[in-house]
Sequence to fold (278 residues):
Amino acid sequence: MCRLCNSNNAVWNARRAFVLAAGVVAATPVIAQVDVGKSSTFRKLVSADQIEAAATQQYAQMMAQASAQKALAPDGNVQLQKLRTIAQRIIPHAAQWNDRARQWRWEVNLIGSKQINAFCMPGGKIAFYTGILDQLKLSDDEVAMVMGHEMAHALREHARERLGKTQATSMGLSIGAQLLGLGDFGNVAAKLGTQLLALKYSRDDEAEADLVGMELAARSGFAPQAGSTLWRKMAAASGGKGGLAFMSTHPSGPDRIRQLEANAPKVQALYEQARKGG
Fold:
């Protein structure tokens, strides 16, 4: 991390970080209404502590750089306050998908950029770009679907799984190389920090995040039908060519929208209960 980033980190952490203590994430687990199966065993090849620590470091560096460029929204920013309010409603439902979420120090920040993008890194580090809010004119329900989707990637440990698969391949190549006298290909996990945001999830990962994210949003009182309207907006904004930064890692299409529409009724009762305050 550069000297400027180091100096900005303390200021950023004190003034801008949105941190929810572990005690907030204490909702009683309720049986999931969507079926996404078990998490991949490949994730066990990479330490959860290691990947979350790497994510925290990279996220802090990104936010410090945004602050230095005067692109990091201040705490009083209306859009940022809305994002944090939505997050506060969703986070209590996260632990049922990953018990580690009870200890995560969640953070939500907003970066001024025309990029149509958002992400949630392992450990609950969330960032939205103003472009996704302004250009798509997202409703609160649609923002919740984006946030729930990104949180689902972290909760289901998709980055850890992808890195685990890479690690397994690397280990196989390394053993083969050593047998052939070609040397060691190195440890994939040693470069976690530079890999996290470059990862591209599989179609299965994306479908899983859609469903888990929709359920998280519904439990928080956000309309599940917003999932399909969100992806229609995404498709329209990309002109069907997938040219957006978000679309490069989150490809849209009729199948994705159909799956969301087919599963929305499964979580409708959760949404209605949440709206009644039940």
